[in-house]
Structure formats: C-alpha cells, structure tokens
Write a structure and sequence with these properties.
It is a single chain. By secondary structure, the protein is mainly α. It has 3 domains: 20-55; 57-107, no CATH class; 112-167. 59% of the residues lie in helices and 0% in strands. The chain has helices at residues 23-42, 58-94, 113-125, 131-145, 151-163. The N and C termini lie far apart (62 Å).
C-alpha cells in the first residue's frame, strides 16, 4: 500500500522483493522530507522547512509565531467545542443537572527561547537597581526553560532564587 495506490493479489499470487537496487529507501526518504516541509508550510513555519541556514529578524520570527498561535487557537476552539458537546451529551444521558463549560487552549507559548533569553539579558543590562526585578526575570527564564520539570523542582528553584539576598 502507498499514499495513493495499492496492490491486490489473488490467493495463488506471489509477491517478492521488486526493487533490488535499494532506490526505494531514497524515495521514502525524499517523501518524508517533502511531507515534513509541507507540515511546516501549512503551519506557517517556513523557516523550519528545508533545513536551510537562513536567518530571520526577531520581528519576522514573531510574525511567524503569531500566525502559528492563531492557528493553534482555532484548533483549540474546535477541541473545546467538541469537548463541550461530548460532556453535555454525557450529562444529558446520565440526567445530571449541571452546566458544562470548557476553557483553556487560548494561549500557547511557542516563542523561541533564545529570544526570551536575549530579552531578559537586555533588561538586566539596563542597570535598573532592583533586586526584585532581577529575581522576577531570573524566575521567568528558569520556569520557561524548565517548563516540563516536576512542580516540586520548580518550587525549589523559585525558593532558591528568592533566598539569595539582594540579587
């Protein structure tokens, strides 16, 4: 089977290796690369497609990410509607008297982390004499970097940042 074709064999038919030169692996690899580029294209992340070394300005990256965030919000709205409908149907079937509401999936943190670090460093380099500002910037950067860490680890890091005097 393939993307747009299939082979149908009869009960007495035999099928063997039909391509001994090994080109099928290159064809499959090219097809995967094409599909990857298409996924990036339709999600408006052209800088990821092709693996090129093109550099973009921060504003250009922000524009690409804002379009992607808009698409993700639209998908989030579809998912929320589907969940709301499903939960409403379940509540009706169970004869539960409750109101159903689904929220979330409105904000997505898809910004480039190096941009976040650069912004934080630029803010700290302004020389604002505020230990609170410095702590808050450090916490924000640490939490963004450790977004998939366990909550107790995050809490411990925040406590350690807050414990350092006059940071």
């Amino acid at each position: 089977m393939g993307e747009s074709y299939y082979l149908q064999l009869g009960a007495a038919d035999r099928f063997g290796w039909t391509e001994p030169e090994g080109k099928v692996f290159q064809i499959a690899s090219d097809n995967l690369a094409r599909l990857k580029d298409e996924i990036y294209r339709v999600s408006y992340l052209m800088q990821q497609a092709g693996g090129g070394g093109d550099h973009q300005s921060g504003l250009s990256k922000q524009w690409d990410f804002s379009v992607t965030a808009e698409i993700l919000r639209a998908y989030g709205d579809l998912i929320k509607d589907a969940l709301r409908n499903m939960l409403t149907a379940i509540a009706a079937a169970r004869q539960d008297e409750c109101e159903i509401d689904v929220s979330g999936l409105d904000e997505f943190d898809i910004a480039d982390f190096t941009t976040e670090i650069s912004g934080a460093q630029a803010l700290l380099n302004l020389g604002i004499d505020s230990p609170t500002l410095k702590r808050q910037v450090l916490k924000r950067v640490a939490l963004k970097y450790l977004c998939d860490a366990r909550q107790e680890i995050k809490n411990r890091i925040i406590e350690e940042i807050d414990a350092v005097p006059n940071q």
